[in-house]
Amino acid sequence: MAICLATALSYGALAFCQNILHNVFLLYYVDIFVTVYHIDKLSFWLGETVFLVWNSVNDPLFGWMSDKKLLFTERVPSNGGLSPVAVVQQRLQQLGLVGPLFAFSFLTFWVSWAPAGLQFVCCLCLYDAFLTAVTLQHNALLADMAVSVTDRVRLSNHNAVASALASASVFASSAFWSRENPQAFRLFCVALAIVAAIGFMIFSHLLRSVYLDTERRHNAEPFSNHASQHEGEAGSIEAEVQVSLRQYIKQLSRHRNLLWFVAMNLIQVFHCHFNSNFFPLFLDHLLSHRISFTTGSLLLGMSYFAPHLMNLYFMQLCQRHGVYTIVKWLFSFKLVLSLFMLAAGPEHIGLLCLLIASNRVFTEGTCKLLYLVVSDLIDEDFVLHKRRHVASAMLFGMVAFVTRPGQTLAPLLGTWLLATLSGFDVFQHPSFQPLMTTAPISAFPRQSPGLNAPGEAKEALRQGCFALLVWVPAICGLGQLVIWSHFRLHGPYLQAVKSRRESPKSNWGMKDV
């Protein structure tokens, strides 16, 4: 079934509701706890460690709760389970219920209601629980509602446009943010949460109606449209064979393309969140003395806006050359640009601006493209294990189980590397300014015998930031290129998988190659 415009618009609108909140969260949650609530270093590390465990566990847990009823290894008559359309309807119903709760959890960060350490871990775990529930269902719809590359790219394009519009919350947030008096920022966050909550309820209901109407035009009885497909098999199959969680994990452990993908994506998730966490720091200590406050704010806002616009171009390239090839090109570009910047040095401001901006644009753009790869892996899983349904949310959850630790490792490893390279510890300098300011930098690393003046301390911090800026993407890009070369789900093999996904009777005997 081809994806209609109303379906694509509604799908994108759900991404808008999620991203207007999540962009603000990524930019300010560390800042508010470090500079406003003054969380201590031990509490921060303990909170991030607890979050690391919960962030990894809740994805497969919620995926299993959502899709365990879909995991069957044999095809049986449709009266034994849900049709594909019913699965989509249930996912959208869950989005309409969980979305407003996600919006509420976003508000818990911006008012101090408990000791900083306790609030930090509670807010992170609560927020991530609802974010996971929303993200899994929304991502699963990409694989459930579309199979062809054209339809998935169309949904992804509208998702990219909506996410680009959602980055307006980042532009607007700078007008309200103040460490000295965050009251205006709190009211701004309340307004964002109200818009998101109402949006989740409206657009999930609208997408359910539009998708069901579209399906009815293609099938006389949408909720039994797969019954005829399996009638010929009813006589030969007497019972359903449901897959246990242990069996499912064992199956995934033999899915070679999936294993190579999650290894690569772990690095990608780390790099994406490293850029989000340290982008303001790079602006402050590498560019603040050479560019204006307005230019810095514009770079900050564009870093959240431009990736989604570039993603539209990447999607068109994917239709022409394939996702595998475009992702490989992006990894190569990241590696080459980083090495070129390393050779040029930190004095070339134009190149610094290009590298800082492109790091976020191309890294975030790659993250968005990888949803298409996961959807292809879902198709391959369906074919390899002869499943009755595609367990989309479950596979997205298992991928996140392995890759989400990169989200927590980014601020932990980043702050440790900064302290190692420059001697600067953000937790020992409450005056540290993580966002662009026009005032002189007031936080310097602890002076060692070789640093006998504030100017030398500032220079050590600048050199440490430059080393982080160039070496992290270079090492990430090199590792990803090596891993990605082993990924085989592309070209003729991918076309064979999609053909068998669309014509399930032909997938018996399909083997991973």
From TrEMBL:
Domain of life assignment: Eukaryota
Coiled-coil intervals, chain numbering: none
Compartment(s) where it occurs, according to its Swiss-Prot or TrEMBL record: Membrane
This protein's GO CC annotations: membrane
Residue stretches spanning the membrane: 25-46, 118-136, 157-178, 184-207, 258-279, 291-314, 326-343
Pfam families named in the record: MFS_2 (PF13347)
Keyword S-adenosyl-L-methionine: no
Keyword annotations of the record: Membrane, Transmembrane, Transmembrane helix
Membrane-protein topology: Multi-pass membrane protein
Name recorded for this polypeptide: Major facilitator superfamily domain containing 13A
Species for this entry: Eptatretus burgeri (Inshore hagfish)
